[in-house]
Specification:
The protein has 245 residues and is α+β, with helices and mostly antiparallel strands. 26% of the residues lie in helices and 26% in strands.
């Protein structure tokens, strides 16, 4: 089989992977706090008895765009926007801890706070507020509750959000959309971090750019498949000539 087929197939596989990353970014263009994933590839020259210009395509270390998305004021008391390199801690089903920039906090009928179904962590435990109470979040992450029918000055502190500081390159992205330290363990609380109450950070994905990338990826894949078809046709014609000989 012609070696060009292997070369073209590696490039076609890279185009498929880029398309998967791009489509995932586009699907999350409206997800709060989402950071677009970047697909990185590099050329690997083929060593041995072959043409010096032949090279395969190999995936490089994937990473994310660390640019902040737009911060929009929502007026909702449970919405928070984190600063650059700021993360909220949530509990995972395996008993561990992970981190997210999505500040759309929800509260259930029993007063438990969660983000996308993951419990929000406070000082070493999940934060639970009095049911049916009015919750306010201060810039330092402190939560205060005012019960239904209580006097305005009867607010009480019910916990504080666990906020951590970590650079994007020091974290790994999980399949569920949460981030964890690359070296494992749990990140410490950053007491000096301040959030923006009643606001949400939008996704940093540009839908227009994502659509353009999808078109470019599709054209690149088709170009490489054309090389495969051409190599196959050349092999068939060569076999015909050999049979005639």
């Amino acid at each position: 089989m012609d070696r060009a087929i292997y070369t073209a197939m590696s490039a076609a596989n890279a185009a498929l992977n880029r398309q998967a990353v791009t489509s995932n970014n586009l699907a999350n263009s409206s997800t709060s706090g989402f950071r677009s994933q970047l697909a990185a590839f590099r050329a690997v020259p083929i060593a041995g008895d072959t043409h010096a210009t032949r090279a395969l395509v190999a995936e490089s270390t994937p990473f994310h765009d660390n640019t902040m998305g737009p911060v929009n004021h929502t007026g909702r008391s449970l919405d928070v926007a984190m600063p650059q390199d700021g993360w909220l801690a949530v509990a995972t089903p395996d008993g561990g801890e992970a981190y997210t920039r999505n500040g759309a906090i929800q509260v259930d009928s029993e007063g438990a706070l969660s983000i996308n179904g993951f419990p929000v962590m406070g000082d070493g435990e999940q934060i639970v507020v009095p049911p049916q109470s009015s919750i306010t979040i201060a810039p330092d992450g402190t939560l205060t509750a005012l019960g239904a029918g209580d006097e305005p000055d009867a607010v009480v502190a019910v916990g504080r959000l666990k906020m951590v500081n970590a650079a994007m390159q020091d974290l790994v992205h999980g399949d569920e959309g949460l981030f964890r330290p690359a070296l494992g363990g749990v990140l410490p609380v950053d007491q000096d971090m301040r959030l923006s109450p009643e606001a949400l950070e939008g996704s940093n994905v540009s839908p227009v750019k994502a659509m353009a990338d999808m078109i470019a990826n599709a054209r690149g894949f088709e170009m490489n498949m054309k090389v495969v078809r051409t190599a196959d046709e050349n092999a068939k014609q060569a076999n015909q000539l050999l049979s005639l000989g």
